[in-house]
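Suppose you are handed a protein chain with no further information: no name, no annotation, nothing but its sequence. What can you learn? This example shows the usual starting point.
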Amino acid sequence: MSTPIDSIEFRRGVVEPVECIKEGYALIKDKYWLFVGMTAVGVLIGNAVPFGILMGPMMCGIYLALFKTRRGEPIEFGVLFKGFDSFGDSVVATLLHMIPIAVIIVPAYIIFYIGLILTTQRSGGEPDPSAVFGLVAFFLIFWLVAMVIIMVMSVVFTFAYPLIVERKLSGINAVKLSIKAGLANFWRLLGLLLLNGLMAIGGLILCYVGVFLVLPISFAALAMAYERVFGLGQVQSNLPPPPPTFN
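A reasonable first move is to predict its three-dimensional structure. Written in C-alpha cells, the prediction is:
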C-alpha cells in the first residue's frame, strides 16, 4: 500500500553538493567495484528499450542497493534486479519525466528539418544564406531554452525513484513529492547535478569507459542528498565521523 504523501515530511536547504559527493564515495568505497558493475549493467539495460522503460526498474534497483548498504545490510549483484518489484511505479515515473521532454524535442527536430529544406531552396535551387542563418540561430536559442527546461525537470525528479523504493510510494505520488522537495532544495540540488555532470565529462575524457567509474559515486551522492532531505531509518553509518566542535 502506498504511503500518503501528506504524511511524509522533508527538509529544506540541507543538501550540500560537495559533502554529498564525499559521503556518497564513503558509502560505496568498500563495495566500489560491485557498484561499478551494477550501475554499468543497469544503465546499459535501461537504455536498451526506447523511452527508458527499463531505466526505471534499474534505477530503483541501484537505489535499493545503496539504501541497503547505508543501513548496513548485505547486498549482492542480484539486488539490482529487485527494482523490477517496483516495475509499474518506476515506469510511470519514467514516462512522466520523459514524455514532456519528448513533446518539446521531437516536434522541434521535425520543424527544424522541414524549415531547413524550405529555407535552403531558392528558385535556382541554391541555398538562402540569410534564411539558413536565421533558422540555425532560432534553433540554438530553442536548445538553450530546452536545456534549461531539462535541467529543471532533472532537479525536480531527483527523488522520484528513491521515494518509490524507500517509501513505497506509487509512481505518481513519488513524482508529486519529488517535485515539492526538489523545488524546496532547487539550487543546491542543481549544484549537485552539475557537479555530477562535471564528473561524467571527466569520465568521457577517459575514452567513455570512465563514465562507468564515476556513475556509482554520482548515484551514491544523490542517495545521500535524499537522506538529508527525507531521512532514512535504521541507518548503520559507515561514513567518517563528523569533525570535532570547539566551544
